[in-house]
Every structure is written in structure tokens, then in C-alpha cells.
Amino acid sequence: MACRGACCCGPVNEDNARFIMLLLLIILYLMCGAAVFSALEHPKEKQAKEKWAQRFELFSQKYNLNKSDLEKFLRHYEEANMAGIRVDTLRPRWDFTGAFYFVGTVVSTIARVSTRPAVYVIDGKIFLIFYGLIGCAATILFFNLFLERIITVLAFVLKSCHEVQRRRKGVLPHDSRQDARLNREDSLAGWKPSVYCVMLILCVAAIIISCCASAMYSSIEGWGYLDSLYFCFVAFSTIGFGDMVSSQRASYENQTIYRIVNFFFILMGVCCIYSLFNVISIVIKQVLNWLLKKLEIPCRH
Amino acid sequence: MACRGACCCGPVNEDNARFIMLLLLIILYLMCGAAVFSALEHPKEKQAKEKWAQRFELFSQKYNLNKSDLEKFLRHYEEANMAGIRVDTLRPRWDFTGAFYFVGTVVSTIARVSTRPAVYVIDGKIFLIFYGLIGCAATILFFNLFLERIITVLAFVLKSCHEVQRRRKGVLPHDSRQDARLNREDSLAGWKPSVYCVMLILCVAAIIISCCASAMYSSIEGWGYLDSLYFCFVAFSTIGFGDMVSSQRASYENQTIYRIVNFFFILMGVCCIYSLFNVISIVIKQVLNWLLKKLEIPCRH
Ligand SMILES: [K+]
Ligand SMILES: [K+]
Predict the structure, then answer these.
(1) Mind telling me how many Å the CA of A169 is from chain B's nearest CA?
(2) What confidence score (pLDDT) does residue B135 get?
(3) How far does residue A174's CA lie from ligand 1's centre (Å)?
(4) Beta carbons of B100 and A67 less than 8 angstroms apart
(5) Which A residues, 211 through 230, put their C-beta within 8 Å of a C-beta on chain B?
(6) What is the mean pLDDT of residues A202-225?
(7) Is A29 within 8 Å of B133 (Cβ atoms)?
(8) Given A131, A230, B91, B224, which residue has the most CB atoms within 10 angstroms?
């Protein structure tokens, strides 16, 4: 498969060219992204810095505090933060439910969504390494099987639609032998939907799930709708920042229901977005192949 | 492929059985993990809580502070933390280098490794959603192509070894026609290494990279070696907690070199661990298939 290129110009065969091209494009993409984010966030950062300096100054003046003492106190607070303690600390984080949430975020590699304090005990750290290794692999398999299931369902739907159409057009579904053969031999094979079809459907599914989840978050957590959408994306894509964290308050109405619904939203969301990433990556690969063809690698002539 | 099962017992065909079984096993796995982590971390959490309560008490007594005022001050500090400001704040986080690091962690879905403050501006949030969608997909493709490249290299090595052996055994490499055909037709096909071989090699590579990176971190960041290993795993697996963060100090010797080496370690590590996850997931799938065979799904008889 990679032979033709390899024969005429050594290590730069087509596959390698695609790989290197992707690497370069990603670096370019990162640079552009860095420029945009730097432009967007830098002013805000300055502002926040000034505001904090002011507040620090005011507080230390008001109570006539020793500044280095106050700083030390804040460092202690940071330390406590690391262990998951806040001023408004709410519920124990390492009870079974908390730990369950924690391992869920580990295995899905979302991690910081629940802002669990990361592991403190050294045994816990060692355990986490081995635990995560199997867990993450199992989760990847789960996502892959999920995508496969989705594709099968789509194939089934496509086939059913086609059959319904055929029946409507008056072609009898009973032309026995051929149909039986079809059913046996390639029941769903040949009905695999195209990449674009899968992408479209996953996109729609992801948007629907995100919108529903956002509606829930914005009403229960009291976030803005856009903020909730951002939270959904960050959680579902397993990026998982810690700036917004769901179900952190001490008490919600119908807490158990909220937690379960939250869990299912995140599960469905992660599955959809993971599958979407995979499908988009196939499309990107096609674009790369097309680009390579257009560029006509010099070693080909 | 899924036909035989589907014909005799509806929706519970082999593929679906595998999927559901995996889901149940993952839930069981999560429960076990939750139990272990809860047991390990719960005492430590209590301890940290008491320590912090004591410190808070002491500080407020020492300066005769109004407690609710101090709490308000700490809440302000948390807010500043969110914007990436610490007592020992060091370098701007949203300059170009910082933003580059940020988008790198977004696209790789590591996220919290660099403890960038998450995005504050609402435009930034919207941009992040679309930016991440393409970026994450491109990165997944990159990882997949990386695994493909690794397998090709292994196939090449296996083939070369075999040829060397053949030559040693006295089989002349010049039995022209057959060799030429081999070279053309299946150059590397048929030399694909087994899953276990790839897993072993990726495992060894991951361990070597982690050990080297840990040696660097423990010397430069001043972490313990085990802590560094834990950091490596958390970063490379894209779990990415915020409890340990590399290159956060104001100045290191040879800062630029450190950053570049750091970047390459993380890139190589993520590639290896991602590939390892994928390969382990294949092994898990084989185990599931074996289990399914053992269980002899009732609908098969
Ligand atoms: K991740
Ligand atoms: K993550």
C-alpha cells in the first residue's frame, strides 16, 4: 500500500507525507488558535490581576495585616483547595458517590469536570496509574463499539426506508429467493451510511443533547445558557476544565434524579462527541488525501 | 456480520451482547475503583479539612478578623484563582506562549495539565467550541496515523530481521523473480506484527519515555520521582488533573530548552499512551469475545 512511493524516494512515501502534512497543519492551527485566545483573554487577565491586587491591598489595610503573613495564609488556602476544600465546602468528596464520580472522570479522561481534588495519597497515585490504564482502554473500546452500534442502527434504518419505498412503488417484497439471499448474505452490509451522513446525524444528536443538557444546567445550576453550552462541550469532549463544575452545591431539589440525569447526559454527550471527533477525523483524512493529490508529491513523476 | 444472532433473537445479537457486557463490566470496574479510592483518600481528606479549619481559626484570632469578612476575601481569591492569578503569580498566562500551551492542551484534551485558567470571555468560549471540534478531531487522526506509522515501522523491522536471518541461513537473497514479486506486491503486508507484540513495544516505549520525563521533572520541578511518574501518566493519558503542573515557576535555567523538551516528552508520551489504550482495547475486545463464546449466548442453540 505504501510501496509505490517508498520505491522511488525512500522514506517519504504517501503515508508519511500525509502524517507530516497533518503535523504541520496542526502546528499552524495551534499558532492561529494561540493568537486568537491571547488577543481575547489577555486584556481580561490584566483586569482580573488589577482587581485582585486592589482587593488584597484593601483587605490588608483594613485589618492592618502583615502582607507576607496574609500571603502565607493564602498559600495555605491553596493547599487546602488542592485537597478539595473550599470556603463554601459542601459535601465530602471522597465518600463512595464522590469517589465513583472521580473514577468516572478518570476513566473517561474528562477529569476536571467534577473538580475532585486529585489524588493525595501515594498509594492512590500508584493505583491510579494501573487503574486508569485498563479503564481508559475499556472506555475507548466502549466508545468505538458505540460508534459501531450507531452505524449499524443507521444501516438498519436506511435499509428499512428503502424497503418501505420499494413496497410503495409496488415492487412486491415477496420475490422470495432474491430477498432471502439478500437477508442472509449481506443483511446490513452494503447499507453502511456514508461518512457525511453519520457526521450529520452525530452532529444533530450532539446539538440536541447539548441543548437539553444546557437547559437543565442553566435552570438548576443557575448558569447562563451560553455558559452551560460551553460546559457541555468542555465536558463532552473530555477536555474538562475546572472552571465550571456541575452538582457542586450542597443540596439540590431531587438531588438523586439530578445526578442520574447528569450522568446520562454526560455519558451520551461523550459518546456522541467522541464518535463525532472520529468521523470528522476521517473527513480530515480525506481532505489530506485530496490535498496530497493536488500537490502531486514531487517524487511521483 | 451481525445477522445470525439478529435472525434468531431480535436485537440481542452478538455485537449488542458484547456492547452490553462491556458496559456492565465498566460499571463494575467503576464501583470497585470508587471503593478503593474512597478508602484511600477519605481519611486524608478529613485530615486536610481539620488542618485548614485550625489554620483559619488561628489566623482570624491572631489578627482579630471578622470571619465572614475573611471568608469573603477568600472567595475573592478563588475568583482570582479562576482567572489564573496566584499569590506567587509568575508569568502572564495569556501571552502568546501561554495561549499556545493552552490550545495545545485543549486540542489534545489534556486541558488541566498546564492549569491555564479556563476561558473567561464569552467570545472565547464560543470560539473554543468550534476550535476544539476541529482541533480534537485532527489530533485523534494524528494519533491514529502515529499508531499506523509505528505498526509500519515494526513490520519493516520484522521483515528486515527475517531477511537477515534468511541470508545467514544461506538462502541467497537473489532468487530474483520471487523476491521482486514479493517486494512489489506485498512489500510489508503479511509482516504486520501481532497485537501483543505492538502492545509490548508500546508499553516499553511508554515506560522509557515516562521514566526519562520523570527524571527530568523530578530534577527540574523538585517533585519526588513517584510524583513525577504520576504526573506523566496523568498528562500522557490526557486525564490531566490540575494538582501538578509543569513549567509554572517564574524562571528555570535554560527555560526555552526545558519547554521544548517538555513539549516533546508530552507529545511522545500522549502518542504512546493513546496507542497503548487503543491496542489494549483490542485485547479487551478479544477477551470479551472469548467470554461471550464461553457463556454461549442462550439465543445461539
Ligand atoms: K481527555
Ligand atoms: K482531560
Answers:
(1) 27
(2) 85
(3) 51
(4) no
(5) 226-227, 229-230
(6) 90
(7) no
(8) A230
Report the distance separating Cα B76 and Cα B143, nearest Å.
41
What's the whole-number mean pLDDT along residues A139-145? 87
User: Grid coordinates in use for A55?
Assistant: 482587593
Residues of A in contact with B184 (CB under 8 A): 3
From the list A139, A112, A119, A135, the residue with the least C-alpha distance to A244 is A112
A111 and chain B in contact, CB less than 8 A: yes
- Pick A174 or A202 by higher pLDDT: A202
| Residues with CB in 5 Å of ion ligand 1 | A 109, 238; B 109, 238
Residue of B289 and A176 predicted with greater confidence: B289
**pLDDT by residue (tens digit) across B147-159?**
888 888 888 888 8
For residue A180, how far is its CA from the centre of ligand 1 (angstroms)? Answer: 46
Q: Which residues of A183-195 are buried (b: 16+ CB within 10 A; e: fewer)?
A: eeeebbeebebee
ipTM above 0.85, yes or no: no
- Residue from A271, A266, A274 nearest A113 by CA: A266
Q: In this complex, which of B77, B142, B230 lies closest to A22 when CB atoms are compared?
A: B142
Q: What is the pTM of this model?
A: 0.79
Q: How many angstroms separate the CA atoms of B119 and A221, rounded?
A: 19
Cβ–Cβ gap A280/B124 under 8 Å: no
Distance from the CA of A113 to the center of ligand 1, in angstroms?
11
CA nearest neighbour of B191 among B200, B182, B199? B182
| Cα dihedral B170/B176/B182/B185 (nearest 10) | 170
Judge contact between A236 and A273, C-beta under 8 A. Answer: yes
pLDDT tens per residue, range B114-127: 444 566 677 777 87
